[in-house]
Amino acid sequence: MKTNTILSTVICAMLLTTSCKNETETNKTMSDNVLLQDYTGPYGGVPAFDKMSVDLIEPAVLEGMEQGLKDIEAIANNTEAPTFENTIEAMERAGKGLDNVFTYYGIFSSNVSSPEFREVQGKLAPKLSEYSSKINQNEKLFKRIKSVYEASQNNPLPADQQRVVELIYKRFEMNGAELDDTKKKRYAEINKELSTLYNKFSDNVLHDEENYITYLTKDQLDGLSEGFIKSAAKIATDNGKEGMYAITNTRSSMDPFLTYSTNRELRKQVWTNYYSRGDNGDEYDNNQLIADILKLRRERVELLGYKNYAEWRLQDRMAKTPENAMNLMEAVWPAAIARVKEEVADMQAVADAAGDNIEIAPWDYRFYAEKVRQKKYDLDSDEVKQYLQLDKLTQALFYTAGRLFNYKFTPVEEGKVPVFHEDVKVWEVADKDTDKFIGLWYLDPFARKGKRSGAWATTYRSHTTFDGPKTVLASNNSNFVKAAPGEAVLVSWDDAETFFHEFGHALHFFSSNVKYPTLNGGVRDYTEFQSQLLERWLSTDEVINQFLVHYKTGEPIPASLVAKIKKASTFNQGFGTTEYLASALMDMKLHLADPTNIDIDKFERETLAELNMPKELPMRHRTPHFGHVFSGEGYATAYYGYMWADVLTSDASEAFKEAPGGFYDKEVADRLVQYLFAPRNSMDPAEAYRKFRGRDAKIEALMRDRGFPVTTEE
């Protein structure tokens, strides 16, 4: 799953505040709390991860909010006439101390969570919501913003300043700045309630991920690879279960187990544990929380005059309306479920021929799909995995960045830069030709207790120039299963694609050429495009021939195996597309439905029935653990965005295919960086794409990519 949950963006979306800008500069915070202080040390300053502790979080957040509100009040009460400089630029500098704290807060939340931190997080969530409301509902502040905005409509500012003004004005308008006092009060109350519910939702999912571990004995390992068995043994030992083998309740552990284990009952148990997260009918069950979230979201947008949450949320996205998003999903859905029917028929035939006497169930899908893959394409995923070493794939990322962006990556000497866990490694990023330093890349690759599942990218500092150039501190985070000592970390093709995907986000951070912090944000159904596009370089000949080598012999991957991989590129697209689209459709339909007396479990079942969802597979994210949508607002009514972005991805990749130099064509790569990566949110995404491609993207490219019938006119 490409969880392109960029943590700082998620926090911003949750808090609805202007404050999440690690790159801004204001007066030095004089606090003794290290979490509030400006970064010190090499590379323009780096986070003091070696000095952070949970006990510092609460006082740092409280002090940071106090200072942030003082910054805002100083802007709001300025007696001079509102200008871009004394209002908008001043806002871009406000709240620096709290921005620093959020770097550490994000690490504790996502990478090294603990019961102690979750308790602090629960206490702070409503206070942070109140802080956000005090900013969004500051009448004097908004009056100044509106004055600058209205003046700019008559006398436009330089393009980047105009974009900043319009984005900030729209953000305040969408979040109730023009409501009357009574409605403002209720709006703030709703946000406070929601902040607590989001926090509880996340804690519940994390609880079920940590506490539903399946332990196996030696006689239950049939079908599993040697490397997976060694890793499972180590995890069990680390959990005090010496002599056993642990299947953790995460995708990185569940997926290979369901693909290779010959024990059907155990597959069912592991599948059930994973897809029942947040849905076990106990104190950690999320169904009622979701119902409460939906009601509050609807009430909040009704205060603003909108019919539903989706209508409010999508107005500043590429899709613009829920109808446009639904039209895209519904155009692809019939082809996706039709392909699932074909895939299931192939799997059932394999099962019948083997005399297995079963009907394909959800916990069988991956297992028999692998059998079909081997039969149809003579392609064994485990054989492919022998050539996908994490270290070599990391070098492949660097090679790709060097060819497209002219970057070089140099390891930072251990101990020179503080890290929050021994698994984290750091690299310098610089221009290959000039040696100009661009930033640091942090990699936290392995799953562990207290780390949320999935893969994501984030920044600890973003590039801006309005107060002098700032270098980038970017991070990629994965949940690969750590190998036993001395063993290579081998990953699946899907996981390798995800690795490239998240690195695409990092390249988006590093290539930024914006002046103002607000312009480092993004439009949700566009920001996944750049990262999805980077996945395509994994399957280029240049990467395959150099970096896919056998983990034992060092021999390059055979050309015959590469040919099989490429021939099978559209294999199992029914499963991949359907499990994703089901979640995206559910997200949208939940927010379009009347939330009064909604029964979440019943709604999920009935909606899937109406969609003719194949019974042989689940949604990628069942509603009770759909953290993208219910642990905050970053992806709420926006999960469709991956497919919207994939239309752009498929169309853009055809631009490279058509170029003389293919995926490494310099002219197309230069346009890629110039228009699709470097501008970030400094220009309208649709305009940026047209500058790159010379036209709008077409859905036909997506259908061709997935091997689906193309029925629309070219």
From TrEMBL:
EC number(s) stated in the UniProt entry for this protein: 3.4.24.70
Origin: domain of life: Bacteria
Catalytic activity reported: Hydrolysis of oligopeptides, with broad specificity. Gly or Ala commonly occur as P1 or P1' residues, but more distant residues are also important, as is shown by the fact that Z-Gly-Pro-Gly-|-Gly-Pro-Ala is cleaved, but not Z-(Gly)(5)
Any single Gene Ontology cellular-component annotation: cytosol
Domain Oligopeptidase A N-terminal: 61-184
Top-tier EC class: hydrolase
InterPro entries recorded: M3A_DCP (IPR034005), MetalloPept_cat_dom_sf (IPR024079), Neurolysin/TOP_dom2 (IPR024077), Neurolysin/TOP_N (IPR024080), OpdA_N (IPR045666), Pept_M3A_M3B (IPR045090), Pept_M3A_M3B_dom (IPR001567)
One Gene Ontology term of the molecular function aspect: metal ion binding
PROSITE patterns: PROKAR_LIPOPROTEIN
Keyword Cytoplasm on entry: no
UniProt record, GO biological process: proteolysis
Cofactor binding notes: Binds 1 zinc ion.
CDD domains in alphabetical order: M3A_DCP
All copies of domain Peptidase M3A/M3B catalytic, residue ranges: 257-706
Key words, A-Z: Hydrolase, Metal-binding, Metalloprotease, Protease, Zinc
Cofactor: Zn(2+)
Family as reported in the entry's similarity comment: Belongs to the peptidase M3 family.
Protein known as: oligopeptidase A
Natural source organism: Olleya aquimaris
